[in-house]
Amino acid sequence: MSKGPILVWFRDDLRLSDHPALVAALANDCPVVPVYIFDEDSPHIRKMGGASRWWLHHSLAALDQSLRDKGSALRVFRGAAQTCIAQLVEHYQAQGVTWSRRYGAAGMAIDASIKAWCKDKGIMCESFNGSLLVEPWLVTTQAGQPMKVFTPYWKSARANHNFAQPLPSPQCFPPITLSASPLEISLKELDLLPTKPDWAKGFSDFWHVGEVGAQNRLLDFLSDGLKGYSEDRNRPDRNNVSKLAPYLRFGNISPRQVWHVTINRIEAGECNASERDLTVFQSELGWREFSYHLLFHNPDLAHTNYQSRFDSFPWRQDSTALSAWQNGQTGYPIVDAGMRQLWKTGWMHNRVRMVVASFLIKHLMTDWRDGEKWFWDTLLDADPASNSASWQWVAGSGADAAPYFRIFNPVLQGERFDPQGDYVRHFVPELARLPKDFIHKPWSAPEWMLREAGISLGSNYPAPVIDHKLGRDRALAAFSSINV
Ligand SMILES: Cc1cc2nc3c(=O)[nH]c(=O)nc-3n(C[C@H](O)[C@H](O)[C@H](O)COP(=O)(O)OP(=O)(O)OC[C@H]3O[C@@H](n4cnc5c(N)ncnc54)[C@H](O)[C@@H]3O)c2cc1C
Prior knowledge:
Blueprint: E1 6-10, H1 20-26, E2 32-38, H2 50-69, E3 75-78, H3 81-92, E4 96-100, H4 105-121, E5 124-128, H5 150-160, H6 203-206, H7 211-224, H8 229-232, H9 245-249, H10 255-267, H11 275-297, H12 319-326, H13 333-345, H14 350-363, H15 368-378, H16 386-395, H17 410-417, H18 422-427, H19 436-439, H20 447-452, H21 468-481
Parallel strand pairs: 1-2, 1-4, 2-3, 4-5
Bound molecules: flavin-adenine dinucleotide.
């Protein structure tokens, strides 16, 4: 008797290799139907930002192509996941569904109710870890409680868990003839790409989206980025970070692949990074894990202060300042360079993310949630766990957060981490002719120098939106008002 197919429901795992849910479905020796459901209709689902939608479009196109190369294809749907899955099971007469787990509250609630529905109908339903090195609930304090501090969290994760070896990509898919579901739509119909205006048109110059792009990115990074990572990961003017974040966010590559390929390359002598470079890189992957640990235990991380004493923080409502920040027009070159890098490429260097976030929260005293929302919309790697955890970390309201009195001085940060000003010159071209001694503080340059460099402060480049000392003192006073 022929068995019905198994639906493999792709979500944040848009790849074929190291895909336990796919491997498990294929192990049943029956046809599989790869599906993607674009769900903006289920309760409490957070809509993807514009940049993420762009990445999603290209990831789905790449996944479909990889599937076609192996005799299958991706079937795309739109709607509330629970309704879609029920209809697809019915239409395809499916015997089961598999997927990789997700860890946000809305997603987990939907998945739990689909599992219950499957059980009720006698449909096999299995979920797998496809996105993390270690499941969030497996790392606990000795008393079995969630972890609150990164260092013990990571120490325990490493000591008590083996990060599984990645699984190979399936060679081919069993043949299947299916009548098309009336619900199926084309990728184009999802309408994920911006058109008027096409603000993402430059992104393709920077990114090769999809599984192949992810693997190449990792190998490029291992051949000339990881060596020196431990120090130079702080330098936005250098090329020593992996830029893997959007690939990890959408699962074009898994963290297990990143972890093991890195170790294998070093052991094979194909990457001469130091022990310290490796450890620091691994611990950054650990921060991603820790963020998911926090999200799992604090489902409202994007909206609610982890530390409730921040609920009475006297945030300012200043839409002009927020807009200057968003548009890279604050008058602080390192901040403006970061915000423009984000707009132009969909990504921003980590050091600069910390500086711009600190500037928004502390100098401009704008609620961290406004910054989180802007990043959610504009980052290609906008991640439900890492984005909110990082914003709360900078604000001081998060778990294991930066101390409130750490208020980055944007001039000193620029001088330290972009000493020649190359990063600023690249993204803020109106300052390109300013000598390095003034590139991070154009307002201190003599009038004749500004004239020679073609800069007219307040006209073709803004004067600072706020004086550093004034902003710092105002923030410190506000922090003391909530007794931090
Ligand atoms: C305000 C703010 C918002 C952020 N929002 C996001 C976000 O939405 N998505 C996101 O993936 N990261 C976010 N980060 C963390 C970090 O900035 C990015 O992960 C990193 O810059 C991505 O570049 P990369 O891939 O070259 O990182 P690498 O330095 O090459 O690190 C390798 C991988 O480790 C992970 N990682 C590195 N640093 C962190 C970190 N601090 N927290 C969590 N994971 C980390 C990422 O998956 C990254 O791809 C944010 C940081 C700040 C300060």
